[in-house]
Amino acid sequence: MPLIPTQVPGTNTAQRVQNPRLVHAIVLLVASSMSVLVTAILGPSLPAMQGHFRDVPGADYMVPLTMTAPMLMMAALSVFAGELADRFGRKRLLVASTALYAVVGTAPMYLDSLMAIIASRFALGAAEAVLMTVSTTMIGDYYDDARRDRYMSLQTTVAASSAFIFNTLGGVIAEQGWRAPYAVFGASILLAVMMAVYLWEPRSRASMSAAQIAEDAAAFRPGLLGFICLLAVALGIVFLTVPVHFGYLLGAIGVTSPSQIGLAYGVNSLGVIAGTLAFGWVLTRRTSVAGQLACGAFVAAAGFFVIKGASSYGMLTAAGLVNGVGCGILLPSMVTWTMRTLPLSRRGLGTGAFQSCLFLGMFVNPILVVGIEKQLGGGRATAVGVVGLVLVALAVVALLAGLVRRAR
Questions:
Q1: Cα–Cα distance between 339 and 283 in angstroms, integer?
Q2: Between the CA of residue 71 and those of 79, 264, 269, 335, what are the distances in Å?
Q3: Which residues contact 398 (CB under 8 A, 6 or more apart)?
Q4: pLDDT digits (tens, 9 = 90+) for 122-160
Q5: What's the mean pLDDT in 349-361?
Q6: Which of 111, 304, 307, 336 could form a disulfide bond with 388, CB atoms 3.0-4.6 angstroms apart?
Q7: Domain-embedded: residue 19
Q8: Residue pair 161/269 in contact by the 8 Å Cβ criterion
Q9: Distance, C-alpha 257 to centroid of its chain
C-alpha cells in the first residue's frame, strides 16, 4: 500500500499562480481548527448545564449531545461539502459558512429550551462541516509535498494549542454561568472578514477541463479511501473520549470545581500538542504510516488504562496528558496519509469523506461510552478502559501490517 502516490497533473498549478504567505497559513490553520470550540470551551460547563436541566427527562444523554450534536451534522454533511467545493470552488463556501458559524454558535446564550439549544448545535454542525472540510482542502491546495505535510501537522498543533487555551479559559468562563462560553463563537465573524480579504480561489475541478479531470482522476483510489475512512470512525471515538467524559470522571473522584476541571482539560490539550510535535519532528521522517498509527494507539491506550484505575486528581490529570500525546500522534498521521492519496480533482470529496467518518466516530462516542457504562455497571472509567482495550487491538493490527509490509 503506497504511502505517497505519484504526482498527478495539475496538482501544483494553484501554488504557481499564487505564493501563499504567513497570513494565508494563519487564516487557514485557524479556520481548520475552529472545531475545537465545539468541545474545548464547553467541556468544563457541562456538569453545571446538566444541573440546570436536571428536571428534563433524559438530560444525562441530552446534555452531552449539546457538545456532540454538531459532530452528527459534520459526519453527515462533510463529504457533500467537499464535493460542492470540488464542483463550484472553495472561497465563497468558506466565507459564508464561517459567518453562519458565529450566528448559530452564540444562539445558546439566549435559548431557554434544551431541545432548541440542541437544534442550534445541529445548525452549527452544518456550518462547521463546510468550514472544516473546505479549509483543510485549501491547505492541500495552497501547499504541496513536504510543506503540505508540515502544515497538516501544524493544523493539529494549532487545534490542540487552541484547545489548551479554550479549555483553561472554559473553566474560568464557566464560573460566570454555563451560557457564558458560547459567546466565544462570535469571534468567527472576524475570521470571515479575514478570509474574504486575504484568501484567493485555488484551482479545483471547477476550473479544470474534462480531459484534465479524467487524467487527474485516474490516480484516485476509492478502496484505499474507504479503508482510511473506516479507521477515521475509530479515531473519532478515541479522540473525543477525554474531551467529553473528563468532567464526569473528575466528578466521580470528588473534583467539582470548574477551574480545576478546566485545568485538567488544558493538560490533556498540552499532551495533544506534544504528540503533534513528536509526529512532525520525529515520527513523520522515521516511521511508516503503520508505525505512526501503532505508536499513537499504544500511547493513547496507556492513558485510558491509567484513567480506569486513577483515584486522585493528579493521577487522572496525568493520564489525560498521556492520552493526549497518543491522540496528538494519531490525528496528523491520519490526516497527512489521507491528503497524500488524493488527486486534485477529488481532494475536496476525499477530505470531506475523511471528516465525515471522523466526526461520525465523535458523535457516537457519548452514546457508546455511556451505553458501555450502563451495560457493565462499573462506572464511566470502566467504559473508558474498554475503549483502551479496543485501541490496543487496533495498534497490534497496525504494527503487524507494518512488519508484513517491511518484510515484503
A1: 17
A2: 13, 23, 19, 17
A3: 290, 291, 293, 294, 297
A4: 999 999 999 999 999 998 888 877 777 778 878 878 887
A5: 91
A6: 304
A7: yes
A8: yes
A9: 27
Q: Give the 3-state secondary structure percentages of the chain, helix then strand then coil, rounded to 5.
A: 80, 0, 20
DSSP 378: S
Q: Tell me whether residue 6 is in a domain.
A: no
Q: Which three cell numbers stand for residue 5?
A: 502516490
CA distance 317 to 184: 25
CB 123, CB 131: distance < 8 Å: no
Domain that holds residue 144: 13-407
- The separation between CA 268 and the C-alpha centre of its own chain, rounded to angstroms, equals 15
- Whole-number Å distance between alpha carbons of 239 and 264: 16
pTM comes to: 0.81
Q: Which of 253, 269, 245, 247 minimizes the C-alpha distance to 388?
A: 245
In the three-class reduction of DSSP (H, G, I as helix; E, B as strand; rest coil), residue 200 is classed as coil
Compute the half-sphere exposure of residue 392: CA atoms within 13 Å on the CB side of its CA.
11
The amino acid occupying position 2 is P
Mind spelling out the 3-state secondary structure of 72-139? HHHHHHHHHHHHHHHHHCCHHHHHHHHHHHHHHHCHHHCCCCHHHHHHHHHHHHHHHHHHHHHHHHHH
Q: Say yes or no to pLDDT of 17 above 70.
A: no
At 317, which CATH number? 1.20.1250.20
CB 330 within 8 A of CB 293: yes
Alpha-carbon distance of 192 to 187, in angstroms, equals 9
- Calpha distance 316→312 (Å, rounded): 6
Count structural domains, the chain.
Answer: 1
User: For 240-298, what is each residue's pLDDT tens digit?
Assistant: 899 888 888 888 888 888 778 878 888 888 898 899 888 878 887 788 888 899 999 99
